Amino acid sequence: MARLKMAARKRLPAKDFAVPSKRPGPGSYPIENRSHAADAKARAAGKPVAAEVDRAVARKYPDMGKRKGHGGGGSAARGEVRHPQSHEEFMRLGHDKDY
Q: What's the CA gap between 49 and 80, in Å, rounded?
C-alpha cells in the first residue's frame, strides 16, 4: 500500500473516504484505491464504524471480497476438509487403515 501523505489526503474528494464526515482527519478511512480500501476494512473491523466502512467499500468496489471461480456454499466449497463428527464416521471413511 502506498503511503498517503497529509497534503495528498486533504486533496482527496469526499467520495474517496469511507467516513466522509471525518475527512481528512483520523477515522475517515481513505478508500481511493483497492489497497487503501482493504486496509480501511481491516482497521475498522470491530469498531462502531465497521458497517459504514464495509458499505462504502462495497459501493466503490462491488467485486472486492468476493472469491472468483466458486459457486458459493460452505467451507467444503473453499476446499476445506470436513472433520468427521464421530469415531464411527472416522472409521467409515477408511481412516482406520492409517493406524
A: 32
Which amino acid, one-letter code, is at 34? R
Inter-residue contact 42 to 50 (CB < 8 Å): no
Residue found under cell 472409521:
91
Amino acid letter, residue 44: A
Would you kindly state where each structural domain of the chain is located, as residue ranges? 1-64
DSSP H helices in 3-86: 6-11, 34-44, 50-60
Digit-by-digit pLDDT tens for the chain (99 residues) are: 678 888 888 888 888 999 888 887 888 899 999 999 999 999 999 999 999 999 999 999 998 876 555 544 555 555 666 777 788 887 777 766 655
Closest CA to 23 of 61, 58, 51, 49: 49
What's the whole-model pTM score? Answer: 0.61
